[in-house]
Amino acid sequence: MADASTLTDAERAKLEQRRDRLMKLLKDGGGEPLDADDRADLMQEWTRIDNLLNRR
Predict the structure, then answer these.
(1) Which of 1, 22, 31, 36 has the most CB atoms less than 10 A away?
(2) Residue 10 above 90 pLDDT?
(3) How far apart are CA 54 and CA 51, in angstroms?
(4) Cβ–Cβ under 8 Å, residues 45 and 21
């Protein structure tokens, strides 16, 4: 997966689902409060995926 222009529809859909799940975890913590390290890790992964999806 080099960039968004080379992603297949299936790869893009999978990444979008993962990004959405990460955002949900960041918002509600999956029912448990997140510590700062966990929140930072989730945010870093969300940002990486978002950048991949939005790269032109």
Answers:
(1) 22
(2) yes
(3) 5
(4) no
